[in-house]
Structures are given as structure tokens and as C-alpha cells.
Amino acid sequence: MSRDLWKSYAGAPLAVRASIALLVTLACLLVPALLDHWAYVHLYRRDLYGFDWARGLRLMGWWPTWALAAFALWLQRREVDAALAKRQALLLAGSVAASGLLCEVLKLVFRRERPDVAAGYWVFRAWSEHTFSTAGLATPSSHTMVAFATATVAARLFPRLRWVLYALAWGCAATRLLSHAHFLSDVTFGAVLGWAVGWGMWIQWGRATEQRATPGE
Questions:
Q1: What is the SS3 assignment for 46?
Q2: Can you tell me the distance from the alpha carbon of 51 to that of 160, in angstroms, rounded to the nearest whole number?
């Protein structure tokens, strides 16, 4: 997507941006949904999290990882500009909180069980069963959503690392699929939603941070 198109999107009213994000999100849920059972059968690695690299990638979607990263960011930059350091750390931590909370709400709405419950076929939990518990629910993938929300914000804070951050986020998503923890549509849905949360937060609160950071660089 061209820079001009990005600028047009970023400058559009919030309702327009939200509508576009919703349409893209729906497309990224419906198309992979057609491949969910195929992916369950063909894309699987037994005992995946027995490997150090897989556990490491999974940590990219674990909220304490990014909470510590936000704290480290504040520690590293506070002596140069305390206000800027606080703003950036809160922005990174806020992306974790916003994506994680939204994901839990969506899981309660969709109520789709994890793939292994019915050998890769969809099963939905009844509203009368554990109404307000997300344990065992799969849609969307919370690890993937947190990984992409935080990677999107961190990529703006550290532009030279953006491809590394997104590669790690995709790696986290891949482990959730290959371990049968989630359907293909769970991780794609989580990735798009996570990106939308991170990008939306940057548009709303990150621009001032970026502008203030530039003169001191």
C-alpha cells in the first residue's frame, strides 16, 4: 500500500477507519475459515512446545513479555526525556491491555471451542455453559492478537526493527496453529485485529510521541 494511501487512511474519520478495519477483518476470518479443517489435518507438529524456539515465539504473545518491554523502554529513555519515555511506555503497555481485553470479549461472543475438541471441526459452546469464562475458547487467538498489536506499536517506535517484530509476531501465530491450539481462522483473525488495535492506538496517541521524538534523534 502506498504512503499516500496510508496517509489518506490515517486522516480519515474514526468511523471510516473502523469500517475499513472491520471489512478487512471479516475477509480475513471468512476466507481462512474455508481452510480450517485442511489446516488442522495437514499443519501439525506434535509436542511443538517441547522446542525452545517454539516456546520463545509463543512468548511474543504473552502479555508479561510486553509489560516488561514497556518498563525497559521507560527505564532506558527516561533520563533523556521523562515525559516522552512515560508516553511511549504507556502506549506500548496500552496496546497489550486493549488487545487482550478486546480478545477476551470476542471469545465470549463467538464461543468457538479449540480445534482438538472435535478433531478440527467447529464446535460452539452453549451460552448456558460457563457463560463468562473464556477458558478453552479459541476465537480469536489471544497470543496472536497481543503479538500483532504490540508489534505494530513497537514497529513505529523502532522503525528499523519493524520487519523483525512482524516476523516474530507471525512466528507466534504459526506456533498456535501448528500446535492445534487454534484454527487457521483464529490466528488470521487475531493478526488483523491486533494490527488494527495497534495501528488505531498509534493514530490516536502515537503521533505526538513520534513528532516529539524526531527533534532529539
A1: coil
A2: 28
Smallest CA-to-CA distance from 102 within 35, 148, 54 is with 148
Which residues sit opposite 137 in a β-bridge? 113
DSSP label at residue 112:
B
**Residue 143 near residue 103, CB atoms below 8 Å:** no
- Cell numbers that stand for 89 in this block: 511506555
137 backbone dihedrals φ, ψ, rounded to 5° = -90, 150
Cell of 121: 471441526
Contacts of residue 70, Cβ cutoff 8 Å, sequence gap at least 6: 89, 90, 92, 93, 96
| Entry pTM | 0.84
Q: In whole angstroms, give the CA distance from residue 22 to residue 18.
A: 6
Instruction: Note down pLDDT in tens along the chain; length 217 residues.
Output: 456 766 777 777 877 877 877 787 677 678 888 899 999 999 999 999 999 999 999 999 999 999 999 999 999 888 888 888 889 999 999 999 999 999 999 999 999 999 999 999 999 999 989 989 999 999 999 999 999 999 999 999 999 999 999 999 999 999 999 999 999 999 999 998 999 899 999 988 876 666 454 444 4
Domains identified in the chain and CATH numbers: 33-216 (1.20.144.10)
Alpha-carbon distance 195 to 201, whole Å?
Answer: 10
